[in-house]
Amino acid sequence: MSGRVRRWAGSEAARGLALISPTLLYAMAMLLLPVIIIILFSFWKQTFLTVDHSFRLDNYRAALTQPIYRDLFLRSLWISLTVSVATVVMAYPVAWYISFHGGRNKNLWLFLITVPFLTSYLLRVMSWKLVLGYNGVLNSLLLWLGLIHSPIESLLYNADSVIITLVHSWVAFAILPIFVSLEKIDRSLVEAGQDLGDGLFRSLTKIVLPLSLPGVTSAFLIVMIPTVGDYVTPKLVGGTEGVMIASAIEVNFGRAMNWPLGAALSVTTMVLVASAAGLMVLALRLAVRGVRR
Amino acid sequence: MRLLSRIRWLPVYLGAFMVFLYFPILLLPLFSFNTGVVAAFPLKGFTTRWYVQLFDNQVMLGAAWNSLMVGLAVSITSTVLAICAARAITRYKFPGQKPATGLIMAPLFLPEIIVAVSMLLVLLQIGIQLSLLTVILGQIVFCLPYSMSVLIAGFEGFDRSLEEASLDLGETAMGTFRRVTLPVVAPAILSSLLVSFTISLDEFLLAFFLSGTETTLPVYIWGQLRFAAKLPEVLALGSLMMTASVILLTVAEIVRRRAEKRVMARGGPNA
User: Mind listing the domains of chain A with CATH numbers?
Assistant: First the structure.
């Protein structure tokens, strides 16, 4: 018996498991366990200062039926969806240019795109307050040009300003995966297609777009999932019209001291964004299959 | 390339895109040198007053020191953990490899607020006092996926026959690691350290939820943003941080390229 154990201990599998175990245990303790516990909490109930541990669905009922939470969920999903579509659409031509026309300067371009993201995240969001504010740069410019006679108040503190700011914050994260998938495309495929009479549009829809789909998909996911729970941007530039679900989660874990409800809101957010992202990926595949025909 | 030279508007679009990307950011250093407290045009005059004030600000300096310590602890720990995991994944095949990798990479695909509140919940349940240590514990999880991506890419290019050759030629396992493996993967390790350090330095949400009385720089900035009068000082701080990060990553890139060239010249994996 000990021979078999010893043989297993010396095997590839055992060495791999042993080597990954510190990292894996850490991720289990600090990520998996907390997520499991938050799911448990979402089925419990806060009664004044103690938590009632009997299984119940009250929190989910509140999360899904109370108009305030329903509105916040819908707005957060809508904003993250808009932001992810906008970033991918804006990022694709940039990734295209760098990949196909970047020549020797590819790394320089990628570096130039990364530099703005070396600014503090908070200040990057803040900078849009400087642009869109009542005394902001955009209003000053429009006044100076004589296009308006008094500053526009509605530039800031709404869902649109949240969307613009989030697009600005996330667009580089969409460029990189698309760029990587464009780089992997075998250029001779495009050339062969062109030799056989493909125009630019046909090359794009039949070859480049379908082959870059993995990059586009990960760009979507990488932008959509984090933005749905963004806390900083709505707080700084959202005003009351741009509040998102993260604020409600934060309030329930903080001042309101209703952890189970906060937990249910978190779990619902995860489930909603995962399903929305799944649908998005599916729709994307179908769309690409459609144009390919 | 012939195929794409036909899109004339592409360079124009790229120019507009760069303006969109840089314009708001460049306002920060611009207004940090402005005499007026309100960040608005027209500019009032040039001053370095905000920078001088910044260096007299003990609370800010304390927060900066905390950030530095947290950043060092986070980047070293997450790089060490990621080296183990990345090496295990690229070198061995073992059962449960996919779910294990998925779990470690999961923070990339979870809204950060949810990671933050679930950690907060667990720490408070166990009764651990919130401090800079809890910030470090949380940020490591958050940095691991980035360190992993960098290191997996670094290890994947690694040719195992180099190690085998070294062992065959009589070098010890330790000697092989030090003289063959390490020089080849060192650039990846360095960029993992730098990337996780920069992420930790800028990370706000986990630090906001998991820090006790001592704050890091982003949490300090968050507190200051409520006061309009503090804005120029915050802008000065932000400009300094941006300059520091740019210098840091430029140096890292130069080091990485030199290392790459050296490996190639020696007939390394990419030759």
Answer: 1-30 (no CATH), 58-292 (1.10.3720.10)
Domain that holds residue B58: 50-265
CB contact under 8 A, B21 and A262: no
Distance CA A285, CA A38 (A): 33
User: Does some domain include residue B253?
Assistant: yes
8 A C-beta contact, residue B78 and residue B149: no
Rounded to 10°, the helix A67-101/A213-228 angle is 150
Q: Which residue has the tokens 């990846």?
A: B188
How many folded domains does chain B comprise?
Answer: 1
Contacts of B24 in chain A (CB under 8 A): 124, 127-128, 130-131, 168
Residue B32 lies in a domain: no
Query: What CATH number is given to the structural domain containing B201?
Result: 1.10.3720.10
Residue A258: predicted pLDDT = 87
Q: Is the CB of B25 inside 8 Å of chain A's CB atoms?
A: yes
> Which residues are CB-contacts of A32 (< 8 A; sequence separation ≥ 6)?
B103
CB contact under 8 Å between A122 and B137, yes or no, is: no
* Residue A31 to residue B11, Cβ atoms within 8 A: no
CB distance A30 to B103 below 8 Å: no
pLDDT at residue number B270 = 44
- What ipTM is given for this predicted complex? 0.85
Write the CB contacts of A171 (distance below 8 Å, at least 6 apart in sequence): A87, A90, A91, B21
Cβ atoms B150, B212 nearer than 8 A: no
**What does the pLDDT look like over A2-59, one tens digit per residue?**
666 667 666 878 888 888 999 999 999 999 999 999 999 899 877 766 777 778 888 8
At A51 the three-state DSSP class reads strand
The candidate with the shortest Cα–Cα distance to B223, out of B43, B62, B7, B105, is B62
Cα–Cα distances (Å) from A266 to A112, A138, A286, in that order, read 36, 36, 30
The answer to whether B182 and B166 have CB atoms below 8 angstroms apart is no
**What's the CA gap between A135 and B194, in Å, rounded?**
38
- What share of chain A in percent tops pLDDT 90? 38
Structural contact between residues B111 and A246, judged by C-beta atoms closer than 8 angstroms: yes
Q: Who contacts A222 (Cβ-Cβ below 8 Å, separation ≥6)?
A: A170, A173, A174, A177, B108, B109
Judge whether B155 lies within some domain: yes
Would residue B211 count as lying in a domain? Answer: yes
Q: Which structure tokens are listed for B33? A: 């040198």
Peptide bond into B145 cis (omega under 30): no
- CB of A26 within 8 Å of a chain B CB? The answer is yes
Which of B22, B148, B173 is CA-nearest to residue B86?
Answer: B148
